[in-house]
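re: ur question from earlier - yeah i can do the single chain one, its not a big deal. heres the input i used so u can compare w yours
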Amino acid sequence: MGITGSLTPDQLEFYNSQGYLVIESFASEDEIGGLRKRMDELLTQFDCSVSSIFSTKNQKNTTDNYFFESAEKISFFFEEKAFGDNGELKQPKELSINKVGHALHELDPLYKEFTYSSKVSSLVSSLGYRRPVVMQAMYIFKQPGIGGEVVPHQDNSFVYTDPPSCTGLWMALEDSTTVNGCLWAIPGSHKNGLVRRFIRGENGVTFDRPSPSYDQKDFVSIEMKAGSLIAIHGDLIHQSFENLSAKSRHAYSLHVVESDGCKWAPDNWIQREKMPEPLYAP
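and the output i got, formated as tokens:
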């Protein structure tokens, strides 16, 4: 396949033992600036009369056809707290969006160029993928003052293959700190396996079992500088808190799965007519 892995043995050992790995300066300032500028352009073009709300607390109640159809589109999702009692936005749309997804990496040339770059492929190759596919991409805003909480979860719950194969790649486009809602994780929790799944049925989406209780003292904060990327094992328990600060926390996130010997689950929320092209193939 001609792809050489970019991670060192020490980095792989840390990833395998802890369930995550931070790679500093993964993206250049020019790349960060380009991705952010392009998102500004997409937001300017966005008609906010056609959108949805995203929530990790009330998934079932806020999921609609717009959400399902976003699997193969560039779609815009508002923060829960973006609207007043009158149903109108309380601030400009640029400060009200939770995220943009989920086919950004396929349909926008700039995001596709970055996603399919050799540096992303080399990282994924280091993790042992043979024919990796990016099933969803998200630009996440974590807006100042209203950026919503993301409850403890595992990426394999939402992006499931048999056997499980998801890895999250989460890149900070702004400094991510404990003040503006950085990621938190339970190191080593990936070794305990998948605890529940988020499934799509005739009546919409739901989790197949209640969430376990987690002790907050088991989580560690993962602060990152803009341009740093964290690889997240699909079974790692991680979360982020509300952003109550005056500074946003923009990020670009990808979820990669193996398509060689792994079957896409028919009850995943993401169902597509055509699978994305692989990052590379053997």
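Confidence is low (pLDDT under 50) at residues 54-62. not sure if urs matches, ping me
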